[in-house]
């Protein structure tokens, strides 16, 4: 029944990322040897720590990899999963370096992970374990607002970020910027409205931008807008749920398939994302969900007919053994590394258009950047000018009414006088980041007569931006 991760990958996650980088490096001129510097992690910390639980001592192992420090802090999520290991953590840290460069966020790349199955521990036990892990990271300089700032990833969320923040604050109360030691924390504790859904929102904005370019849409064998497009999403966690929900509710897309751990739900008429999520929250599974066809072997649904496929769960789910069967003409990588290098080659050969992870799922880190700036500036965005903007809006409405002698319609009045709330500013900044990055990648892939796929162009553009001249070249 269970549909466990099906990653059949030749080579490790890191080797796959390195192969993708190699392909892009053919498009970029670098100093000799610089490619090796780009492939290796600057530092990886491994910690193992014992905790007494349920009358016995249990030992937990975790990692925090720092891929690059050309900008500081190094930034990236923290994953709690039984499959976490050093190789995956280092691969994910490298992706963070390229991702930050693509969306022009001034961070180095980092990622962390704790090898644990969070479902096996209760809330108090998880708090104990998370706080201890945070202490191990902080004591060794792998957690601080200046050098290394974690965020949520698989198996972690606002709750874990709050525990980490509190642990750091207790260790370093004299650090006036302590609130910025993590992002993705609860809004009450200095988190940013809009960060929770930011990665999913970024997927929506990336797709909207793609569909604003008819030539790119046509090249994918599609036409029109997102309205009515048939979408299959894998993983209804933080990223997958928000992406699918916004695309359905705000763009009129039809979610015809949802693939979860225990199997998949299919409905050609469109599944209600909200209803499925509510069912999952209540029952802990999609098993037994009414009003949809259930497919036992969920991963097989990746190959079902649809317009857009959104893998939003795990790495390596599209691999050499299933790539040929994928029918979606457009794949947007909401997860990190869902397509292996070999599968990517097969899909490219078939003409499948892939919007790569280092662009597509960057919405999270973009809003993390806003959160970190807000924390360092100790003031919420818009606090100083919101009422001023509203007063100016009222003056404009009064002037219009005086000149025209007519009453302004209520909806127009509301739009003109309402000062932006913080979440409006966050969405606007995120939308801008996703639009600009898409346009830059699209330009780069065609520049000088080139005809690159989006992934190769994104990697090449990132490497160009990382500006090797500013890397740590030992000039100390
Ligand atoms: N959170 C963020 O801001 C960002 C996340 N990402 C990436 O997005 C991906 C998802 O992260 P996130 O949404 O945060 O993680 P979550 O843990 O919130 O969600 C992952 C979802 O995938 C499901 N899942 C696990 N295994 C399978 C499987 N074999 N088949 C189908 N579904 C499965 C999980 O089910 P279950 O709960 O049963 O395990 C869960 O619903 C990861 O690759 C992450 O690195 C990228 C950028 C930012
Ligand atoms: O928000 C962040 O800092 C990092 C998000 C992340 O881990 C990712 O983009 O993979």
TrEMBL record:
InterPro entries to which the protein is assigned, alphabetical: Aminoacid_DH-like_N_sf, Glu/Leu/Phe/Val/Trp_DH, Glu/Leu/Phe/Val/Trp_DH_C, Glu/Leu/Phe/Val/Trp_DH_dimer, Glu/Leu/Phe/Val_DH_AS, Glu_DH, NAD(P)-bd_dom_sf, NAD_bind_Glu_DH
Gene3D superfamilies: Leucine Dehydrogenase, chain A, domain 1 (3.40.50.10860), NAD(P)-binding Rossmann-like Domain (3.40.50.720)
Swiss-Prot/TrEMBL catalytic activity: L-glutamate + NADP(+) + H2O = 2-oxoglutarate + NH4(+) + NADPH + H(+)
A GO MF term: nucleotide binding
UniProt: substrate binding residues: 75, 99, 368
Isomerase is among the record's keywords: no
Residues noted as binding NAD(+) in the record, renumbered to the chain: 199, 238
Sequence ranges assigned to domain Glutamate/phenylalanine/leucine/valine/L-tryptophan dehydrogenase C-terminal in this UniProt record: 192-474
Function noted in UniProt: Catalyzes the reversible oxidative deamination of glutamate to alpha-ketoglutarate and ammonia.
Name by which UniProt lists this protein: Glutamate dehydrogenase
Organism per entry: Ectothiorhodospira haloalkaliphila
